[in-house]
Each structure stands twice: as structure tokens, then as C-alpha cells.
Write a structure and sequence with these properties.
The chain has helices spanning 2-55, 128-153, and strands spanning 60-68, 76-83, 89-99, 102-110, 118-122, 156-158. By secondary structure, the protein is α+β, with helices and mostly antiparallel strands. Strands 5-4-3-2-1-6 form a 6-stranded antiparallel β-sheet. A hairpin with a 7-residue loop joins strand 1 and strand 2. The mean pLDDT is 82.
């Protein structure tokens, strides 16, 4: 019977090594996600600033990232913004909108009291394709996000 104990012990060691390797890989993935999060937020902030500058030059100051407490928060990110002309505190949301050209980030501005978010433009697109996408997406996807964003912003946490 000693050979059976040795066989089980060797199998347990092998399983332990495999589980240990999986734990190390999982830990590395979590580490990379945590390290890259500030870079991701800064990149989205720059996209929001660019779209707002193109739609309303010099009108908005983009502030801090806001954590959305919503299941669709994986498709969008929110930032606090302030209007220079009125001094009003608003929210800018960049959301992944499905268009004829595939998923494209779109920027919306929503106030605290307004019923709908205002579409400001698509990020990273220029030229004729932008106008074509706005014309074809406005009725469906953009309108969906205009109604969804105020609901999401009702449960916002600053981070």
C-alpha cells in the first residue's frame, strides 16, 4: 500500500502546481487591470474633452471621473463637467454606441434636472462618415442612450 500513498501524493503535488499557476496568472491579470485603470480613465477623459471642444469650443471644463452604479457601466464612463458660461455642474458620458460601422464611442451631456441627455458627437471619427453615422444612428441608438443616461446618472458615485 505504500505505493498508493506515493501515487496520491504525486497527484496532489501536480494538482497543487496547476492550481498555483492558475492563481499566479489570475493575480497577474488583476494587477494589470488595476495598474492600467488610471490610464484608461485619462484616455477616455481626453476623448470627452476633444468631442466637447469640437461641438462647443471653450464651453466646458471636464472634471473628475464618476463611477456609475449600473449594469451598463461596462459600456460607458461618466465625468463631471462645468459650463463656463452658466457655471452649471453637468455630467459628460462617453458610451459605446452600435452603428453601421460597428461600436463607436459617443459623448453625451446631461444636466442634473434634464429629462434627456444631449448628444454631442462621436469620438475618433472625422469627415463624411461622422455625418452619415449621426444621420443613421440618431433615431435608434442615440435616442436609446439619451433616455438611459439620466437614469444611470441618478446613481453616480465620484471616484
Amino acid at each position: 500500500m505504500p505505493s498508493m500513498d506515493l501515487k496520491y501524493r504525486q497527484e496532489l503535488i501536480r494538482y497543487g502546481i496547476v492550481i498555483g499557476m492558475l492563481c499566479v496568472l489570475f493575480g497577474l491579470m488583476v494587477l494589470f487591470i488595476l495598474v492600467s485603470r488610471p490610464s484608461w480613465r485619462n484616455g477616455l477623459r481626453a476623448e470627452v474633452e476633444q468631442v466637447l471642444e469640437m461641438s462647443d469650443p471653450g464651453e466646458f471644463i471636464v472634471g473628475d471621473f464618476e463611477l456609475l452604479s449600473s449594469p451598463v457601466s461596462t459600456s460607458c464612463a461618466a465625468y463631471s463637467i462645468q459650463s463656463k458660461s452658466t457655471g452649471e455642474s453637468l455630467h459628460a458620458v462617453i458610451a459605446r454606441v452600435t452603428t453601421l460601422y460597428g461600436p463607436v464611442p459617443a459623448v453625451f451631456v446631461c444636466g442634473n434636472e434634464s429629462g434627456l441627455a444631449v448628444f454631442k458627437g462621436f469620438a475618433d471619427l472625422h469627415g463624411v462618415s461622422v455625418r452619415h453615422m449621426e444621420d443613421n444612428s440618431r433615431a435608434s441608438q442615440i435616442y436609446y442612450w439619451q433616455r438611459k443616461i439620466p437614469v444611470m446618472l441618478s446613481k453616480v458615485n465620484k471616484k
